[in-house]
Specification:
The structure is a homodimer of 417-residue chains. Chain A is built from twelve helices and 15 strands. The first copy, chain A, is of the alpha/beta class and 417 residues long. In chain A, strand 7 (167-173), helix 8 and strand 8 form a beta-alpha-beta unit.
Chain lengths: 417, 417
């Protein structure tokens, strides 16, 4: 697909016919008359997820009750789901566990990383990082005091220069939630480790969206989300990656019974489990985790390089179609153009981004708004077709041309946007 | 029901006919040929829970996708479910929130309580407390240092004497997970507060099992579990109670975006939400929480005094039937006899408790084993009948008399017991 030739619907239809991932679309339930460009907020529902939810509720819980901990191996879910995620982020088995929320998991790995850095206390991140990541560092500072944990924020452009021998932990989100900017994991990890720092990567917007190689990049710790590109359902549990080389020496303070060496001996004193299990805290969220487990089966035969290619192609296609509409020139792209520097979304600044987003949703194109003025579109190659991109841009152009978005009803902000 | 007259099956059948809660049983799915005496580990499945799970997965997620945060009010679930729980533990609205696991929630309220006690650092509890509660205190000590948080453990018998002016926080589980012993919440809360201490009650084995009155007892903080007596499903989210008088002055370190005053403004700095929302951390576990929400509807018209009466009657009935079987004399009761001193379970010590439990399960009576030698039986008045108790004891007597439990197959320990 070149940018010189005008893209046509027919050409896009052909792209779909040539698409090796097209068949995957059938694995998802997609509502009629809806184009879903928000899989980076909440992934669409894999059909197998509905089946698994029914099975876990009615059969495993309803029929087999407490015996399911053994009979259906609920007790091992955090590890089996963890390993499935591990395969998709380039982690060898035994280094990923599924549990809790991304925020809670960040607290754990942050403490684990700092436990290896007795002489340093600076946690370096960027101003644009997802706020919850920054809040969790602030929260930890509050209990440890700033002499053990202090957040330092810089702009993206000053990041590399700020990585020095004061830094205990470099905390970055691989793909920026607003702009979709992709950091170079290999390079930044190396830069940090060269200065004696440890790295924590937040993979919320990259896991399941592009090939990630935590082992190969020698990453120390990572966290991520189950309900975006993994399609694990609303509020699906999150995950933790901790490189095996750290397992025996780290500690983290959310020492619940599931992280104990022998939880069912009910010892009065805590003794941490060996390996990745030490990151478990309370009872696993069996129902949600089972649904995520089912959703991950959809990825079992997916080639992540192929997925990445389609993700970039869909994004480029969107951009080219946009440029074919005079009326859409007012959308200022903030996502980098270079393929190596972006994830699986495009973001555009526009003074009426909120109203545009609402008007689009009304017309069946589900996009996302991020304060104060960003329209965000996520491209999920497992269930989006090239022709969907065509239709989405046509509707966007209609909304813009007609001034539909200027109606009062689209200006009123909802609780969640 | 008196202890002098021999209990008969006919008498128990009459008890069922006279039971005002009998109709509630129809709200639950109960497997055939199973007597479930383990609702204190994992509550049975309310039929409405299966319906809600299907609706949330297929309709709310599958059809309405991201728009459900507003359309189905996912964003308010932690508060609406919290208030439903609040009603059952005697908390006025706005003081309970549903989130995370019991262990993670304990960490939050522990920090919140200690934030009000700058001059004290002792967290007093009892040796027999549920281990995860003690582990979480240990974990916090690890990051704060013992000069801010130090666990002190005493035996139950020495508890009152140990409540002195050194104690920052008294941390107790109302009903002991092993013995079923019930602490006097009103008295112990008063004793602690008279010495300037704050109290945290773990309601894991009391919420939904008996009338709890946190407001009336002037409790400071409480936590509890969604999957036991509330029947919220495996790994259902837990809850936090924090008395309104503390909301403006406390702080806790798991400061995720959902606890921010305005999460969707994506500010770089954390500013805590007013009220109970400050205890939220990451994205709510929508699917699991919705199922718990449905399960709580079963309680909407339940009189907790009536539930308590039946719970005690079922327990007494079990004990009396036990005493009618010569062969069951070897079971040494460790649960207090006084109704004011026990929850909704009975626990018996026996050298072969593990094998007995396994043999019972094989015969369809699901009981629970707690290391090293305790057979635990939970009584859940919403779905157990008096005649079920009769049948359970008959089977227990058969297993004991026949020596069935001595077979090798029952001696082999499973991963989870």
């Amino acid at each position: 697909m070149t940018h010189d030739v005008k893209l046509t619907y027919a050409a896009l239809k052909q792209c779909d016919l040539d698409d090796p991932l097209l068949a995957k679309r059938a694995a998802f339930h997609l509502p009629d008359n809806t184009l879903y460009l928000d899989g980076n907020s909440l992934g669409a529902m894999p059909k197998i997820a509905a089946e698994r939810a029914a099975e876990v509720v009615s059969q495993q819980w309803g029929e087999h009750l407490i015996t399911s901990w053994n009979r259906h191996n609920w007790i091992d879910l955090p590890f089996s789901v963890g390993d499935k995620i591990g395969r998709l982020i380039g982690a060898a088995p035994g280094q990923v566990v599924c549990c809790d929320s991304t925020s809670v998991n960040l607290f754990k790995v942050l403490c684990a990383a700092l436990s290896l850095q007795p002489k340093r206390h600076t946690v370096l991140s960027v101003n644009g990082n997802f706020p919850t990541d920054l809040y969790m560092v602030e929260g930890l500072s509050q209990v440890t005091g700033t002499q053990r944990c202090q957040l330092k924020l810089v702009d993206d452009a000053k990041l590399e220069a700020a990585i020095n021998q004061e830094v205990a932990v470099l905390l970055l989100t691989q793909v920026d939630f607003r702009s979709g900017r992709l950091f170079d994991m290999a390079k930044l990890t190396r830069l940090a480790q060269d200065k004696g720092a440890l790295v924590i990567w937040d993979l919320a917007h990259s896991a399941g969206a592009l090939p990630v190689a935590v082992d190969e990049c020698n990453v120390d710790f990572a966290i991520g989300c189950g309900y975006k590109y993994f399609n694990g359902g609303p509020g699906a549990p999150a995950f933790i990656y901790a490189a095996r080389r750290h397992h025996s020496t780290i500690s983290q303070p959310l020492t619940g019974w599931m992280g104990h060496k022998t939880p069912f001996s009910f010892d009065t004193r805590y003794e941490k489990a060996p390996g990745i299990a030490q990151f478990l805290t309370g009872t696993p969220a069996v129902l949600s985790m089972s649904v995520l487990d089912a959703a991950l089966e959809v990825f079992a035969d997916v080639d992540m390089q192929q997925l990445r290619q389609k993700s970039l192609a869909l994004s480029d296609c969107f951009q080219q179609l946009l440029s074919q509409h005079e009326c859409l020139r007012g959308l200022e792209r903030i996502t980098p153009y270079n393929a190596d520097e972006r994830g699986s979304q495009l973001a555009y600044r526009h003074p009426d981004a909120y109203a545009l987003c609402q008007a689009l949703i009304k017309q069946g194109v589900i996009a996302d708004f991020r304060a104060p003025d960003i329209l965000r579109l996520g491209f999920t190659p497992l269930y989006l077709r090239y022709v969907d991109i065509w239709t989405a841009v046509e509707i966007l152009a209609d909304v813009m041309r007609s001034g539909e978005y200027l109606k009062t009803e689209y200006q009123v902000k909802h609780k969640v946007t």
